[in-house]
Amino acid sequence: MRLRVDRHVEVLEPTFARVRQALGRLDTVGKKKFLVVEDEARESFVQVAGGKLAFVVERGGMGRLERAHTETPVVSFEDGTTLGRISLLHDEWLSRDQALALLRCFLEEAPFPPEVGWRDYTSLLEALGPATWPGDA
Questions:
Q1: What is the maximum span of the chain, computed from C-alpha positions, in angstroms?
Q2: Of 13, 36, 22, 29, nearest in space to 96 by CA
Q3: Distance CA 25, CA 19 (A)
Q4: Cβ–Cβ contacts within 10 Å for residue 100, how many?
């Protein structure tokens, strides 16, 4: 596995502590806007964007992209509120703890929590065309 923060290789074989530290440094207005944990063996990734109060989490691999959502939104944003260039639905904003839980599951190859659903955004990848790495999508 490898951890990237804004297109830079940060750590090969990252620990959860290192991923948690990287997530804590994300800032929507700073230089570190997103992170990606890639698992080349499984040809999959989880990427997180946001900072401070709310995050968006996506997973993908082998031509698929899905965005996490919850039944209980953590912020009162309306559908269509944007994070950078990403337009989100109100239930796609996750808390720091929720984002960390999903990252831990991915790192440990454990099942994702049942209270988090995944919405298919593969058509978004197809519209954007091929990316050189997950964070480019």
A1: 38
A2: 22
A3: 10
A4: 19
Instruction: Count Cα atoms within 13 angstroms, Cβ side, for 49.
Output: 22
Q: What are 2's strand-pairing partners? A: 12, 38
Q: Helix, strand or coil for residue 80?
A: coil
Residue type, 70: T
Scanning the chain, the segments in alpha helix (DSSP H) are 16-24, 96-107, 122-128
- Over the stretch 46-99, which tens digit does the pLDDT of each residue have? 999 988 789 999 999 988 999 999 988 888 888 888 887 788 899 999 999 999
Indicate whether 31 pLDDT > 70: no
Residue pair 75/83 in contact by the 8 Å Cβ criterion: no
Q: How many CB atoms lie within 10 A of CB 118?
A: 15
What single-letter amino acid sits at 41?
A: A
pTM value?
Answer: 0.86
